[in-house]
Amino acid sequence: MPPKPYEDRIHWFHEARFGLFIHWGLYSLLERGEWVMFQDRIPAAEYAKLADQFTGERFDADALADLAVDAGMRYGALTTRHHDGFCLWDSACSDFTSTKHAAKRDFVAEYIEAFRKRDLKVGLYLSNPDWRFPGYFEPEKHPESREAMVEQLHLQVEELLTQY
Description:
α4 (61-70) packs parallel to α5. This protein is globular. A 3-stranded parallel β-sheet has the order 1-2-3, covered by helices on one side. It has 7 helices and 3 strands; from the N terminus they run αβαααβαβαα. The protein is α/β, with parallel strands linked by helices and 164 residues long.
């Protein structure tokens, strides 16, 4: 069966008009935005230590979903992994995840469950680059690293699409 035309697939979005983008992750601990690792030139090994402090204790997917409903929103989108490479789910191809460090939680699953329970559409945002790979910054110098980063990206997109 051929895919529906673009107009049919996007119609719900034009009707919804209002949603919540939850841009949150490990970088939140530093309170300077999601680009802090890059802008402050924090070495990957140093930045990775934050994962053992990131508990997400104030993350409440139900409260966020209730807020979205109360405000009249029809959908949400969650950053599952930003450029820092930290995953908010249990990725099989990375140890740099919320489930394998201090939080011991799958925030993606919590978000999806809460939003679907309230009949809100869910979206997942995953950044293509991962700054922990030297091949992102210098692909010609580190082609094997660049290839590994792309492979990880493909595997993680597949995980999100099949697990959630």
